[in-house]
Design goal:
Layout lengths: L2 H7 L13 H11 L12 E5 L2 H21 L9 H4 L12 E8 L5 H18 L3 E4 L9 H7 L5 E10 L21
Antiparallel strand pairs: 1-2, 2-4, 3-4
Helix pairs in contact: 2-5
Length: 188
Amino acid sequence: MTFDELLGSRRSVRNYRQDPVSQELITEMINESTLAPNAGNEQPWKFIVINNQAVMKRISDESKRNILARIAANPDDYASRYKTILEKEGYNVFYNAPCLVMILGPARLRNIYADCTLAAAYFMLAAASRGLGTCWVNLGRAIEDQEMLTELGVPDDCDIIAPIALGYPTQIPPVPKRKPPEILKIID
């Protein structure tokens, strides 16, 4: 697959087969994601891999509960557009994927969001190159329960940046319509 084909094949997948993804394959993709550029070459990213669907459902339920509480406190919250679906008991924010990879890093670092986002992009491209599907599920970051964070192994000084659902897709969605790039100025 050429790089252009790879970029075109990476989609946000929301329908997964239940086939497990081998830990060896996940580790390969994590290793490749650490080749991403990062500020000062600090390489601050950390990874948590969850292959347990019951744990993923608990994270989903915790996130849904916290986001719905946030919406109730502020109906203008950007997440209010998800309210109806979040209220559905059976809705899983991770789309029942067989695996969840969380990319996190030290909250104190100024560039942690950019650094972890670059690692997430590399991870998602590595997955696409292997025929795997991913979906960055920002809703899955809303974990406030300290016991759950401890169980997941999230260090106290870290923020979860990119929860990524991972698995073999039942289908690859078509490319959504894209706006043309807005080039504000070209200076020669």
